[in-house]
Amino acid sequence: MYIEDTDTVRYVYRLLHEEGLFLGSTSGINVAAAVRVAQGLGPDTLVVTVLCDSGANYQSRLFTVNG
Predict the structure, then answer these.
(1) Residue 67's pLDDT is what?
(2) Torsions phi, psi for 42 (to 5 deg)
(3) Is the terminal CB of the chain with fewer CB neighbours within 10 Å at N or C?
(4) Phi and psi at residue 30, in whole multiples of 5°?
(5) Among 1, 47, 27, 20, which Cα is nearest to 12's?
(6) Backbone phi and psi for residue 51, each to the nearest 5 degrees, phi listed first
(7) How remote is the C-alpha of 45 from its chain's centroid?
(8) 54: helix, coil or strand?
(9) How far, in whole angstroms, is CA 1 from its chain's centroid?
(10) Burial class of residue 65, CB neighbours in 10 A (0-12, 13-18, 19+)
């Protein structure tokens, strides 16, 4: 399964703003893939993923504020 970079970043920021989880891109790609799998399996299915990295390693690239 291929996950676009834009989807990865969207989930990283969504997890930060909606759940208060400061995670990195590996976690973002895991969540994006889990959501895609869940959508294909239906509402009565449980999908589990691992949030395996912190956003601290990505502060200079992913969380840089311009201006």
Answers:
(1) 47
(2) 105, 170
(3) C
(4) -65, -45
(5) 27
(6) -95, 95
(7) 20
(8) strand
(9) 15
(10) exposed
Token pair 């208060």 is at which residue? 20
Q: Are 27 and 47 in contact (CB under 8 A)?
A: no
Residues of the chain under the 70 pLDDT cut:
63-67
- Which of 22, 50, 29, 21 has the alpha carbon at shortest distance from 10? 29
Interatomic CA distance for residues 36 and 1, integer angstroms: 9
Residue-wise pLDDT tens digits, 40-51: 998 899 999 999
pLDDT at 66: 58
In order of 28, 29, 65, the CA distances from 21 in angstroms are 11, 14, 18
Is the dihedral angle over the CA atoms 51, 29, 32, 57 positive or is it negative?
A: positive
